[in-house]
């Protein structure tokens, strides 16, 4: 290997190390998906000025049954990664596909330059599946196949390195395949864990609503209203996404309140009201100290605080009330107005709007809600109605 190639190889492998480090750092974050992985690894390791890489490549994975999944095809253009929107589908039992994943199984990497074994480039093309030739869109002059192992086995096939494909190219590709294999396994696990996390949150929120009549629809609607408010306030996507599943936990603390109090028709006596007013604190305690549940804790503790400091449990005022709590308060009050509760009948959207404008015996909009948020609510009130009605079928 020449010095120049050695140095490039080192640089590319170093990029791969940095990427692995970054991916591990991002592992708990939602953007660590397969797509993110491909974009990063292919784009950053093979792309960029002065980087040496194939003109095109595709990724192909095998199901446990041995059947090939549709492959993902990529081209490099001016050093940047371009993914073709359509996927390459190879007949899973075609000779070519079998070649890719089985006949080559003995070797981890296979490197072929046309001039080494064929009379002409034209003859060499006959080796390839029509779908592959069609995708490459130019005569294939060389290729490297590298197996990917890990939870999902498959292969990366890289086509048309400039000049000849070299052992250096094969080494870089092999490092990529190893990284892709292991990060992909982790990525799949992270996605599974995230799903389990969300399911557990939902189950917890639902359990707390079980005593009330609404069988969990209230919490789903509150999620949606809160997400709509946050999005229309121009808050970052991450916040919007998190509040859209954290809002449902606003009343988790009610699990500690006896059903006789929760479902009591008519007003609560002083002792009952005092206990009821503790549900935000109970909620905060139940949610513990996980950083993932920070927003949920803010919501649980603050969704009954009032803008003028007259709420509970801590009489927080104005900006001192966590934003997520202020948002969920608007969402929760709207939904409570629209719903049948043991102590009241449901209101129409227009009647609920009127309460948000002029107040009633319990609600004083100017004193209770963040004025900016109230403005956003009036701007998107039709969305609130739509959300409520969509659950009412
Ligand atoms: Fe509450
Ligand atoms: Fe609620």
Notable features of this structure?
Hypothetical protein af1432; elongated; 393 residues; 2 domains; 6-stranded antiparallel sheet; Beta-Lactamase; alpha+beta; 6 strands; binds fe (ii) ion
Short description:
Helices cover 52% and strands 9% of the residues. It is an alpha+beta fold. The mean pLDDT is 84.
What do these coordinates show?
The chain is elongated. It has 2 domains: 3-189, 2-Layer Sandwich (Beta-Lactamase); 210-390, Hypothetical protein af1432 (Orthogonal Bundle), CATH 1.10.3210. Helix 8 (217-232) crosses helix 14. It has helices at residues 3-25, 34-46, 95-101, 114-117, 121-125, 130-136, 167-209, 217-232, 237-246, 259-262, 270-276, 279-287, 294-302, 323-338, 349-358, 365-368, 371-379, 381-390, and strands at 56-61, 72-77, 80-83, 109-113, 142-148, 154-159. It is an alpha+beta fold and 393 residues long. It has a 6-stranded antiparallel beta sheet. Strand 2 and strand 3 form a beta hairpin. Bound molecules: fe (ii) ion (FE2) (2 copies).
């Amino acid at each position: 290997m020449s010095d120049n190639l050695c140095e490039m190889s080192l640089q590319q492998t170093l990029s791969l190390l940095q990427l692995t480090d970054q991916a591990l750092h991002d592992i708990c974050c939602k953007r660590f998906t397969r797509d993110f992985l491909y974009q990063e690894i292919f784009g950053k390791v093979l792309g960029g000025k002065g980087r040496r890489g194939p003109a095109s490549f595709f990724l192909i994975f095998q199901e446990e049954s041995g059947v090939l999944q549709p492959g993902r095809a990529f081209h490099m253009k001016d050093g940047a990664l371009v993914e073709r929107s359509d996927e390459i589908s190879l007949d899973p039992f075609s000779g070519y596909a079998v070649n890719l994943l089985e006949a080559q199984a003995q070797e981890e990497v296979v490197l072929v330059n046309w001039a080494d074994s064929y009379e002409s480039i034209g003859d060499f093309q006959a080796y390839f599946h029509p779908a592959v030739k069609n995708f490459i869109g130019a005569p294939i002059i060389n290729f490297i196949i590298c197996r990917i192992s890990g939870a999902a086995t498959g292969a990366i096939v890289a086509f048309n390195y400039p000049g000849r494909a070299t052992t250096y190219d094969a080494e870089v590709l092999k490092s990529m395949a190893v990284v892709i294999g292991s990060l992909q396994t982790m990525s799949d696990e992270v996605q599974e864990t995230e799903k389990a996390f969300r399911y557990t949150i939902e189950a917890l929120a639902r359990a707390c609503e079980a005593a009330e009549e609404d069988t969990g629809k209230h919490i789903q609607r509150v999620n949606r209203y809160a997400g709509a408010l946050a999005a229309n306030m121009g808050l970052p996507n991450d916040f919007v996404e998190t509040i859209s599943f954290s809002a449902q936990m606003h009343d988790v603390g009610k699990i500690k309140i006896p059903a006789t109090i929760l479902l009591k028709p008519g007003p609560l006596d002083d002792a009952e009201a005092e206990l009821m007013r503790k549900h935000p604190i109970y909620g905060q305690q139940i949610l513990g100290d996980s950083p993932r549940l920070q927003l949920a804790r803010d919501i649980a503790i603050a969704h009954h605080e009032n803008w003028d400091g007259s709420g509970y449990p801590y009489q927080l005022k104005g900006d001192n009330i966590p934003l997520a709590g202020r948002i969920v308060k608007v969402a929760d009050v709207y939904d409570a107005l629209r719903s049948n509760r043991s102590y009241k009948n449901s209101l129409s959207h227009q009647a609920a709007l009127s309460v948000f404008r002029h107040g009633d015996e319990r609600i004083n909009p100017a004193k209770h809600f963040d004025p900016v948020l109230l403005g956003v609510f009036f701007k998107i009130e039709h969305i609130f109605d739509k959300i409520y009605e969509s659950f009412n079928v």
